[in-house]
UniProtKB/TrEMBL annotation:
The keyword Zinc-finger appears for this protein: no
Extent of the signal sequence: 1-24
UniProt protein name: Extracellular solute-binding protein family 1
Domain of life: Bacteria
UniProt KW Secreted keyword: no
Origin species: Lachnoclostridium phytofermentans (strain ATCC 700394 / DSM 18823 / ISDg)
Amino acid sequence: MRLKSALKRGFAFSLATVMVLSTAGCGKSDNTKDNSNGNTPTGTEGTESSQKPNSDKPYDGVTVKWALTDNAATGSETKEMVDLIKEKTGINVEFYITPTSKAGEMDKVLVSLMAGEAIDIIGRTPLQLEEFYKAAVLEPIDDLAKADNYDMSAIYGDKIVKFEDKSFAMPAEKDIWLTYYNKKIFDDANIPYPTAEGWTWEKYVETAQKLNNPEKNIWGSFMSDDVACNYMLATQKGVSAYKADGTANFDDPAFADAAKWFFSLGNDLKIQPGCIDLASGTYPYNSFMVNGNIGMYVYGGWVASALSDKTKYPRDWELGILPMPYPEGEDPSSLTITSCYAIPKTSKNKEAAFEAIKTICENKYTLGYGRVPAKILTEDEAKTYIESSLLPKFKDDNLTVDDFMKGWFDNSRLYLSEKIMGTADTTIGQIYTEEGQLYGQGQKSLEDTMKSIQDRANEAIKEANEQ
């Protein structure tokens, strides 16, 4: 669903404490330099540039500032990406470091941008970028792409992030949900490994029930308390969170059915931990990776990257993967979310920043961290990527090219947003989390829960439209 426009909200904020970390480790330097030929690229004033009229790296020597948390900035993938940007474009990257925002807090990078801080690159999901757009801190990139003769649609299809028909971000990677399974648990239970064809939720539950073994503390299934799980069956059935008139659609029976089904897996069928156990933290989101007693786990593609790191997540069992299950009678589908890169209005190096995010979005998946590229790949390109980059990371798991093609590169499959996207979507997500927990923990009936979600969502939509 195309994101609906909403007028800006007023924000009360305090300026976050931030730190700029130079990739060269030299701190801040005087980047001013006389340019006698008068060819300084627009937006690079005040930065060092060695641009030459015939150079294939017109922003060679320009420095851009990339907003990241300390953990992200010091990660090996980020370091390799910075080196690749330098190699391909000549652009230097500095980091603008901010702490991770806590639950309920405003994004600290957004706070800094609203205060006028000069930042050149930010990375967020489309839903998160909507908040930046509402705060009027994002730079449209259509003119930058046109000036560069860069056809974004040809490279990324419909994944360009747009608000009111203007482009504001390009996508780098897709996080596509999969079914992960522990082959050892299947072997111990003498149950054949499941196959991708016809892998429905009905078959998933049936398989989990066979794997479940309370005496041996074996769970057949695991899904965390991510709010997307509450309504994912409705999403996969094509039911919109909004009615045609823009009001909430949570009174559609599909949403009640989805919530009832999800919470029944743990509370009634007991094939996975119940809602109270999940809420208490007894079974954290990474239980499948660290415990070794869970048969199947359905979650985002980032899990595959995590499981490929046996130093962080040591295991003595082989991993199997399948596409995400889908409701019987519906077209095969998977939930997904996209990581995108945008340029703030406060950027002093917009053209150089555009060159840098082009490099990130086109090349991040090639660094060998198990990413699913958002750029359009041909079937042959996808297979070559799997063979050269993905399979070596799982050499002990006997995974195949076909496994990854069916899970991540099946062009006949529907890929649906894992998040509700539209007017007041962030607030609605919070409402759904709160109300869903009350229902899952037995504090509220399903009927009262869905009525509360519907009423509160409509109020949030009304408030957003009135601002």
